[in-house]
Design brief:
Blueprint: H1 5-10, H2 27-48, H3 59-73, H4 77-82, H5 113-117, H6 137-140, E1 150-151, H7 155-171, E2 176-178, E3 192-195, E4 198-211, E5 214-223, E6 227-229, H8 233-242, E7 247-249, E8 271-277, H9 282-285, E9 291-297, H10 301-304, E10 319-326, H11 332-342, E11 353-354, E12 360-361, E13 366-368, H12 371-383, E14 389-392, E15 397-400
Antiparallel strand pairs: 1-6, 2-7, 3-4, 3-7, 4-5, 5-6, 8-9, 8-10, 9-13, 11-12, 14-15
Helix pairs in contact: 2-3
Length: about 400
Amino acid sequence: MRPTLDDIFAEEDVFGLLDVKPAAANGRLADHADEAVLRDVEAFHAKHGRLPDPDAVGHDEMRLGVILRKLAKTPSDHLRALDRLGLLNGTDAPPPEPSWRDEPSDDELPESLDDIFADDDLDVPAALFELRHVTPAAERHLPDHRADFVPCVDFEVFEPKFLEMQQELEAGDRIATPIEKRMVIDPYEGDFFIRNGLLAFIAEKSEMTARGGSRDYRLRIIFSNGTESDPLASSFRKSLNDDKTARVVQRRGLGALDPEWESDKLALSGSIYVARSLSTDPVIAAKRNILHKIGVTSQDVRRRVADARNDPTFLLAPVEVVAIFTLQNLPRARVEELLHRFFEAARPAELFITDRFGKRVNPREWFYVLPDHVSQAASLLKEGRLHGYRYDRDQQKILEK
């Protein structure tokens, strides 16, 4: 049978193994260590003019401060005799500074941002509160132009096209395919879509512009309920992708070279307009009276120029429409091409602007011409005699060839 611990300790301790006495503290070693600490404290005091802080961020100062605080509670007589500066009494110690570790009192907690900025100890430059190069919120929330739905004043031009398209869809002669999520859509004049249950016809795709550093266009869209809108192509694409019932109506023919491919496109008449820039740019402002934009649109001219200050096509500035000439039985796209080609010699090659994304844009619808020149050219165009004349930039006259 194995003995228990009680049996073992009850036996006689022949060798005195259990006769253990606590070792006496070595006073000389302890005093030597305390003297070393006191010398370090004196050296710190001579260098910094204060006692080490037990709550200091630095490890060495914190360690020395903690040891000094412990020694100061029960110093030996030998250590007191060596303390010539009275450092163990803490008489030379400055009042403790606030630490980030301390919990703030209730009266120190700010109640609002105003209390924080009103603090005299918070030296904040006034320039930080001044917003520069930023559009005020009021202007951002009030856009110059919204692509709202408005009545289409010339809906009688488009109504037969809608009736024909509806009959072809019902008879199966046309196919309307769903628009898949994130499908890339590039609308062209003459395209039909179905959006929110309505047939949508792309009547006009205006000059190329740049939005967000990428190419974009302003569209004129006619809907089968007699309304129209003029969103950007990117906005229209987004609305189609967001509509789960949206469809694209496939065109006739096999491609752009097929004669039937353009059968849906209407040769719309419209208006020739001449616009003068109201830009504050010194280079543009100096030529304001001679530099004009020649544009052709099938929609209301005021809606076309409403978003001018956000459109690089209009030099990113508001414009003043100085002349409008009505077209009758003349295709808009063809008229615009002929006028721009006629005044090609007056197109300023050096004209460019930098958009908000630092990209250089060269608008090509601006010319060094007067409204009277455009009026004369429009009259010759209506009469079918424009091809017999040319524009002389040096004389600033329209001359017969």
